[in-house]
């Protein structure tokens, strides 16, 4: 047997990427776990998820050969994490991709070379087995040609990759034989084969041959361009090189497990199977939590935030099972950063911020966990009172889902009190939740059906809008009408798309909206209007046009951008850069852009921030932006390579926007950013910057809306008009006197309120005196019951307090009407509350006022919308006491 190389995780990752770089691939960076411009995904869940725009033809990549190591999150099997050898919530997927370039006859020999060559992984060929789709004879022949023995090739009907609408096709899977000593089944078990449910044959690589379009009509049509999509789980491959029983005994997880051992009450990994599950849960989940927060997601009760919160709570409960009673997860963030720093240095750089978020959530969950215990104790007490011997499944599931209690923990608490848990009911509730999640996932993964309308159109088109907003003699080099390439288009067409050889119209990108304007013929006649501009797959500016006259391919036209609108957009785009930098300066470097919109009359800027933005900080941000405007700073641009731009300190917002040559916008020494948008020449052109609103729009995402120049002046003028109006209303001689007049009015209101409350108290006392004199004797005890005229429930409670202090009767029932609403109050003396419950009586009489209520045994209240029924309620109370 060939001796196995010893490689750590960083070496395996680098070796894989270097192999494909040597075969002409471009290394693509690992994208954020939070999808950019892809609302169909909750998380980036695979390497191909970041390549969707290339595979469905929306964008043509600069290099059709790409490779990546992509961090991914999947939570569909979260309950299995820790219990199996290889389930993870976050993992890295190594992949190589071809978009219409090479196919099976290239990728299969490369795969075999990477796996078996001594220069690369150097696996023993005898250890490798390959499954393939039975009808895919070409793949089988290519494997045999590469050097695989026929008895190591296994046909498998499941080897067809199809996630619904979009690219699909047969695939081939590669398995590594770890030997029978790793198996959890007897060697002769029917599942003990490559592709079976066993621990011996480890699947390490899946190569998908995308050659069909799965259409909305559920047919499979040949793709215009065949693609290759592969996925190799880093954690799995590393477990082979490190000869680890599972993925967890590798350098990716063991430092975390060792750290948890130090937090626990003497627990050691590998000594107890139950404890090992908790160690694995924590090691897995803290990686996911750390990376997710680092990429801009934050804990919340919905979407990505809920996933983070759930993982964190599972980790805290796992820690408690190991005897860890103090917050500990935040302390593990630097360890995650150290493990991953070779490829993800930003995690370590942002460790303090990530730890702060986790610590806050841990502290908050302590109260939630105590709440869960309180609910459980309440349920146990009720079960004892009613004689029930079982906690129902829905309650057990609520404890699990809302409070983070594993059903095993609920069962332990219940058993101590002689109770059981309805496991079937719990399982049913769990299945229902999983089905909901599975249905949601079914909607998440589909790609668009591949279209090649503009995919093969590669004629050059130049954007000149940085310097010119009008262009003479722009030639139509591409023309489509209602989805078909045409020689001419006329006004009857619903959808006309045009590409010119040069254009002053900006295509929507980076939050900046597209330009609009006119298309004019040689006679000065407007033949059409540009209503939108997007990028074609090969990045030409693709104009969507409303025609008033025919437009011809090859003809030349004058193109005129709406100048006034364009200049407003420029101002707001520059203001966005100033705002971005000011937020970083005031709130901290962790603040990241989460989206933006640059319109003509306002700008919108979304950013990641944990917690509220105070009014004081918001004013600092606004003042800082205006300072830069009034300093009259030149705004300059330069085109350079990415590395040079980074050395300049340029901020990259979303790295997948940038090619080899990037455009950098520099606002003096204040701000430097990658940006392909339009900007002013000097900050003084903005005139004025004013924040209109600020607030939360999602978990950890804040939004600022702001205006500049004439729109800012208009906003301020409207505010001044309102202030003048307020001065007139409060009879202030001058605007500056408004605060003083408001203070005087508030003082007068306060005195009036006190006098009113004193008068109401006097009325209530008179009402109480009249009502308290009428004590009735009933079979169930002494009763005072009356409708009184007071200001509302607050004064009914005051009367009840006086009644209780004077011990005037066993039961008190009072009602009052305020406008069109009715209030009822029932009070029972402490001594009598063992026999009579205030809540029972209020429920009996509240329907008379069309209301409902409840409360404690000694005090209950109800509200309703039928004041006419108050006397009926009093009469019913007297009947109830008989």
Give the SSE map:
Layout lengths: L8 H14 L3 E2 L24 H4 L9 E9 L16 E10 L4 H13 L11 E5 L4 H10 L6 E3 L4 E2 L4 E12 L23 E14 L5 E14 H8 L12 H10 L9 H22 L8 H19 L11 H8 L4 H5 L1 H36 L3 E2 L1 H11 L3 H10 L3 E2 L1 H20 L19 E2 L6 E12 L2 E2 L2 E2 L6 E5 L1 E2 L13 E4 L5 E10 L5 E7 L3 E2 L3 E6 L1 H25 L4 E7 L4 E6 L6 H16 L4 E7 H6 L13 E7 L3 E4 L14 E10 L2 E8 H21 L8 H35 L3 E3 L2 E7 L5 H14 L4 E8 L2 E8 L9 H8 L6 E4 L3 E6 L5 H11 L2
Parallel strand pairs: 1-2, 4-5, 10-11, 12-17, 31-32
Antiparallel strand pairs: 2-3, 3-9, 4-7, 6-7, 7-8, 8-9, 13-14, 13-16, 13-22, 15-21, 16-20, 18-19, 18-22, 19-20, 23-24, 24-29, 25-26, 26-27, 28-29, 30-31, 32-33, 33-35, 34-35
Keywords: Aminoacyl-tRNA synthetase, ATP-binding, Coiled coil, Cytoplasm, Ligase, Metal-binding, Nucleotide-binding, Protein biosynthesis, RNA-binding, tRNA-binding, Zinc
Subcellular location: Cytoplasm
GO molecular function: alanine-tRNA ligase activity
Descriptive report:
The chain is of the alpha+beta class. It has five domains: 9-244, Bira Bifunctional Protein, Domain 2 (BirA Bifunctional Protein, domain 2, 2-Layer Sandwich), CATH 3.30.930.10; 253-360, no CATH class; 462-561, Elongation Factor Tu (Ef-tu), domain 3 (Beta Barrel); 588-720, 2-Layer Sandwich (Threonyl-tRNA Synthetase, Chain A, domain 2), CATH 3.30.980; 761-880, Diaminopimelate Epimerase, Chain A, domain 1 (Roll), CATH 3.10.310.40. 37% of the residues lie in helices and 24% in strands. The strands form eight sheets. Strands 1, 2, 3, 4, 5, 6, 7, 8 and 9 form a nine-stranded mixed β-sheet that branches. A six-stranded antiparallel barrel has the order 13-16-20-19-18-22. Strands 30-31-32-33-35-34 form a six-stranded mixed β-sheet, with helices on both faces. A hairpin with a 3-residue loop joins β26 and β27. α15 crosses α16 (615-630) and α19 crosses α20.
